[in-house]
Amino acid sequence: MIELQSESKYRPSDWRWKRAAHLRQHGRMPFRGNHDIYVRKAKAYQGERAVCTDEWALCALAEVWPALDEAYRIYSGRYPPTKRELESRLLTGPDLAHISARSCLELEVVRWYEALFFNVSDRLHDPSWVVNYVLGPVLHESLADRDVDLIWRLLAYAYGAIAVEHLLYVVPSAGVPFASVDEATSRFDSGARGLATRRNFLNLLTLKPGDNYQKLHLLEIVRSFWEMEKNSGGGGVGSEVEALLAHIEAAAKALPWGVGVSGRAGSGVKSIGLLDPADAGAGERRLLVAVAERSGGEISVGASTMPPAVFPERQRVN
Fold it and tell me: CA nearest 247: which of 229, 269, 266?
């Protein structure tokens, strides 16, 4: 209960809703002098909702509390895309009227949602609280591709409203028709580059290096960014994206493996003579190959060093 207060440094974003539930559960009234109208009304709404026995009663409740009821339905996960967008937009700033217009929600719904379920507007200047108690520890522990809601909130808080628009509409200038064939070609080209850049960014954001081989290539990607920045010469975003794609292509071609005659490793490559006694684990073997290449060594992973696959003949059963 002590964390469910406006002044608490450890309050959750839905502290008012939880405080109202705690007071109702224990039959308590808000403390004297507490003039938080949202907690009082949330407690009343929770009490009325608790006695609803069917959908008709819930519909009648929605007519009495239209904005609060819609905000609760969003909070409870009934409309996941709307919840994701609304919470992300609330992390971009306290302008509720602008958020209402962009998300096509009534202003009262946005106001109730911010007050009861995602109260962050008065703490956006406190990145420590936002990261630890709004985004949560999973941000630093096991962020994965499936954590779409968390990724949206993180990018919204870090980069602002433009990031939300970019995530929401996927491609730039969504809803704006082409004026000419040339414009269509140009926008398709820039959209493809933007999608590639965003996909690479999200891949890095959710990357979990599980062995030294992956960590080594992650370092190579970082080095590629440094080289891209050094070599782009201030040529703008387009040249930076081209340079990044060129580095990614070069890194893919340099991956230390090859299969059969068509493998990436060319014929006639001199062997360093140290791989045969190496550990048989595939991850360690590739790591040794990569380290040898980075240090100037040469190896052979072509068909001459790989035993051909042998399959047993099919036996006829009488």
Answer: 229
Q: What is the DSSP string of 143-171?
A: --TT-HHHHHHHHHHHH-HHHHHHHHHSS
CA distance 289 to 279: 12
Each residue's pLDDT tens digit, 171-188? 655 556 767 787 777 777
Amino acid at 186: S
Across residues 206-213, what is the average pLDDT?
Answer: 64
Find out whether 117 and 75 touch, Cβ atoms under 8 Å: yes
Q: Compute CA 280 distance to the chain's CA centroid, rounded to the nearest angstrom.
A: 36
244-256 pLDDT, tens digit per residue, is 666 666 665 665 5
Task: For residue 110, count other CB atoms closer than 10 A to its CB.
Answer: 24
Helices and strands (H, E) in the chain, number of each type: 15, 0
- With contact defined as beta carbons under 8 Å apart, do 132 and 109 qualify? no
Residue carrying structure tokens 């920045």: 229
C-alpha distances in Å from residue 93, one per residue of 88, 98, 316: 10, 10, 74
Residue 145 to residue 153: CA distance in whole angstroms:
14
Q: How far apart are CA 167 and CA 161, in angstroms?
A: 10
Q: What tokens does 193 get?
A: 């580059």
Q: Within 13 Å, how many C-alpha atoms sit on residue 253's CB side?
A: 7
If one counts every other C-beta atom within 10 angstroms of the C-beta of residue 256, the result is 20
